[in-house]
Amino acid sequence: MTNKYLMIHNDLVRQIEAGEFAPRALLPSEHELKDHYKTSRETIRKALTLLAQQGYIQKVRGKGSIVIKNAKLDFPVSGLVSFHELAQKMGEMPRTIVHELSLLKPDQYIKQQLNLSGKDQVWQISRIREISGERVILDKDYLNEKFVPHITKEICEHSIFDYLENELNLTISFAKKEIIVEEPDEEDKRLLDLEGFHNIVIIKNYIYLEDTSLFQYTESRHRPDKFRFVDFARRGH
């Protein structure tokens, strides 16, 4: 038997997708929904939290639950596409905020990810991706200084891949990827808009040059409501 909060959630989704609640419209209050569905306030809150996590509504303190456009962006899993390239396909231009850019000696974890020796240094770059005024991605990039001797904040605000390929003439060839779902850590909570969300999707990228040199490790930490991770597979015979 379906849980009561899921039945309410499914009914509200049906109404939103049918246009009965237009984008930017307010849903009925928790009290009104409680009376309408003849259930507890806690059950209504669980249904609304799930709607928020799926990108149907935004909870605004003092106002209530506002219906938002539910459009997930296709993020290719198997391709090597920069955020800047993905942004060009969006109707609304996102914003990149460079939170940190520094050259440092990596800790043990980053040494292991990039197979570094004790003398190697890395560029540590932390960038927040903002879409429609919401901070939804935290990109944490680590680049081996041996391959990238110089980089600036302006380059990081635009496209690192564009700089590597067209200014440094590096040939980026392939990547190994790992996708996991975790609870957000304190940095995620501080830098991203995660109210109502209890998980983030993390894509770990190990990026290689044409000569198979591993030169970049990236953790791209996504709020789960904005993206649909897609791939194409063909069965071999």
TrEMBL record:
Q: Does the keyword RNA-binding apply?
A: no
UniProt cross-references to SUPFAM superfamilies, sorted A to Z: Chorismate lyase-like, Winged helix' DNA-binding domain
| CDD domains tied to this protein | WHTH_GntR
Q: What is this protein called?
A: Trehalose operon repressor
The segment(s) forming the HTH gntR-type domain are 2-70
Q: Which gene encodes it?
A: treR
The family database entries (Gene3D superfamilies) matched by this protein are listed as:
Chorismate lyase-like, Winged helix-like DNA-binding domain superfamily/Winged helix DNA-binding domain
Keyword vocabulary terms for this entry: DNA-binding, Repressor, Transcription, Transcription regulation
Q: What is a GO molecular function of this protein?
A: DNA-binding transcription factor activity
| Alphabetical list of InterPro entries matching this protein | Bact_HTH_transcr_reg, Chorismate_lyase_/UTRA_dom_sf, TreR, Tscrpt_reg_HTH_GntR, UTRA, WH-like_DNA-bd_sf, WH_DNA-bd_sf
GO term, biological process aspect, one: negative regulation of DNA-templated transcription
